[in-house]
Amino acid sequence: MDDIRVNSWNELIHNLYDIPKTSLNRYRSNFVYRGLADQSWELDTSLSRLSGDYDKIERPLLRSFGKYAEPGSLPSDNIWVRLAIAQHHELPTRLMDWTVSPQVAVHFATSEQGYYDQDGVIWCVDAVEARSLLPSDLLEVLEAEYASIFSVEMLEFIKTLDDFDRFGKKNSFVLFFEPPSLDARIVNQGAIMSVMPDAKLVLSQFLRDHPNLYRRIIIPKELKWEIRDKLDQDNVTERMLFPGLDGLSRWLKRYYGPGPGNR
Q: Helices 102-110 and 224-233 sit at what angle, rounded to 10 degrees?
């Protein structure tokens, strides 16, 4: 899939919202989105960024997370709930964060001012088309629920990561699921998470092997300030996406900070 390099805010919005009508005559996107500040970055998980034999420490990490977590902070023994909570609280996991909101993805591509000298990127993945690569046992679960994306409850029959990895013995795939609404941050960000059946798989390489599943929209560095200011006007800010005093402070620091030419 060729990258789409936009040259204006209008081109960006057109490419993000170029959504055909569904069979119900509605404009509903099949895509999930992930924004990155630097278009050269791969879709690496936080676990893989530990480098070394990171796949061998995945299970000790999760085991210790459950062991030392404050009593009552993990509401379920469901491995998918535990993984989602771990990811949400910045424990390195094989999960990756996505959103159903194009503008939330654009926020994450333009919020880090330390990368305003680099082009940003929005990865757009067709989560509905990705179902065609799921093993039949998993696809049947979705079809029985008339769903396009899994919930954590729909995955309860998979008790461990070892059980999940067995589904990928023949062919790789990516599975998208909706995390539980742990707090307002997950809700406001329209969060979706992805997982693959081997901690060492790299999603960006998998997508390049299946170019029909995705497209990338490149945001030139010269456009980042304009896009950032227009997102602020649309109230797509840290204050909304990270509710609380931390998010408020992050937004104010950026909003009242130096603009282009004053850094």
A: 130
